[in-house]
Sequence to fold (641 residues):
Amino acid sequence: MAARTDLFTSPDYFNVDELLTEEHKMVRESVRNYVKKEISPIIEDYAQRAEFPLQIVRQLGELGCFGPTVPEQYGGGGLDYISYGLMMQELERGDSGVRSTASVQGSLVMFPIYAYGSEEQKMKYLPKLASGEWLGCFGLTEPNHGSDPSSMLTTIRDAGDHVILNGAKMWISNAPFSQVAVVWAKNEQGEIQGVILERGMEGFTTPTTHGKWSLRASATGELVFDNVKVPKENILPGVKGLKGPLSCLTKARYGIAWGAVGAAMDCYDTALRYSKEREQFGKPIGGFQLQQKKLAEMLTEITKAQLLNWRLGVLMNEGKVTPQQVSMAKRNACEIATNIARDARQMLGGMGITGEYPVMRHMMNLESVITYEGTHDIHLLITGMDVTGFNAFK
Amino acid sequence: MKILVCISKTPDTTAKIAFTDNNTKFDTGGVQWIINPYDEWYALVRAIELKEADPSAVIHLITVGAADAEPIIRKALALGGDEAIRVNADNHDSYYIASQIAEVAKQGGYDLIFTGKETIDYNGSSIGGMVSELLGLPYVSLAAKFELAGNKATITREIEGGEEVNEVELPVLVSCQKGMAEQRIPNMKGIMGARTKPLKVVEPVAVDTLTSVVGFGLPPAKAGVKLVAPDNVEELVRLLHEEVKAI
Ligand SMILES: Cc1cc2nc3c(=O)[nH]c(=O)nc-3n(C[C@H](O)[C@H](O)[C@H](O)COP(=O)(O)OP(=O)(O)OC[C@H]3O[C@@H](n4cnc5c(N)ncnc54)[C@H](O)[C@@H]3O)c2cc1C
Fold:
């Protein structure tokens, strides 16, 4: 199906742009132009075929979307968190799968190696991950342990100069195409540790997950470990316990908060344009109150979320953010984005279910986004526990 | 090799065009500024390509404009300029602007000066010619291709119905158009690097302003578009006959 020209213009009802620096705007413009040039023309076809556009890995590396907040000496961008957020917003404006690829690489693979890795590990992996020469994935979720990762069954056992890794991970983004995997497993003492796996290690396989109706242009797979011998120098020395993976998730969830708003902005923009062009009963459907209500509410929610994200970014830059604040923003962004996508889809009538417009793809993608990195319920429980002091998880 | 690229800011192509002060000034309220596309996509990117082929080359950027031109200068630096000079003057007279550029160029000793073929707002197309005259340099306009071998440039110009190939020794001034190079997107490294690249602000030299605008006018508003179904030839003929009166 021929892709429509990407006419996206970004809604900014409260002049949030005035809160951004020229550099922020330049970052956003670059990523927006990249999406218009390389993503919008191809993404619908890849999503329809459920194929990962592998070429984006090098492109995103070249553009600087992998690990933008990692210091430059390791190949990162040295940018601030608002730049990073805007980048994720623009990528997800194109497709949640493309943003996922970048989120995983930057926040879930490069970040733990940067924060908890040895100098040798940083020098070995970060520059190649930043440039897109290597793709990485992050293995936390298991077939029987999703929302409750602390009960994971994957283990490492000491065997002298190496450890033996056994177990399996499921729902792992980028897995089928990754050269590198950061995997979380329990040692003999039951402590969670991170290990860096490389493709080709004996006993390590990455079967692809088929049949997804969501994130179809992102590759998902399993990680299977059958007595994999992992050299001890591949263990991340700087962290033990659940806080290792959770700190990565905080970074990635931050990006999702921005990203989901990007998808919402694309849906709103598409619906707004359609409502002015499509005529029924002798006038544009945008002239009917029911459609105006949808558009007005979409824009209201987008505007609130833009301001929330901006503030979250400032707190992030100042090192004052709490994981609970990130949870609230991630949850809110996913909620408004899924609602906006559904309303926008309805506004497009029959056209809304086709790949002629990006809306149904966003709508289906967002079902993953609202589920991964902590489900909608789990983020609510995080806020609930934070405000009441009572743990309602178990 | 020293290359000077002249860049100017123009309104984004989607900007709403309106005038103030009795239709003598462009209304800049709410306008997004971009680098004039001919300056950016063709002149600057071709200069960057030359630098990629010869890493000893340096690229200077010049703009004659007020402080609000600085964001587009930073973007040009992010794309790959090495340093920038802003002549602090807000003036739309071509002779005035060309004189300021010539003054800076004289001191810089450039081998190559690139401009866009025109700006997409005022469409004057005169800066290149004027600067070359003021500097006594050869001028090749409307270049669609630029190749360099040692000190000799081979420049392909577009002319009515075909092309013309010129040879010229450096230094030379070239105005660039489509075909010279392809638009690039600044990457994060470039954007970060632009933070610390020098942007020098110099005051203008005293030069006469030879022209002034007495009025702008908008073209007549476009009439609405009527869509006719592809199989409804009768309706098309009727419209062409009765409404457009073309047949
Ligand atoms: C496309 C995609 C990509 C992914 N990529 C990755 C990746 O790269 N790496 C990775 O490690 N994981 C990844 N995941 C996994 C994702 O993080 C998990 O799916 C998610 O954490 C939920 O786990 P689960 O699917 O096992 O659901 P479950 O945990 O089984 O949850 C099922 C339902 O029960 C609810 N629930 C669970 N616990 C409670 C409770 N205490 N109270 C109330 N309700 C509860 C949940 O909210 C949910 O509605 C990905 C998932 C998808 C869909």
Notes: The pocket of flavin-adenine dinucleotide is lined by residues A 104, 137-141, 146-147, 171-173, 215, 220, 368, 371-373, 375, 377-378, 381, 393 (CB under 6 Å). Chain B has one domain: 2-219. Chain B is about 30% helix and 30% strand. Residues 37-53 of chain B form the longest helix (17 residues).
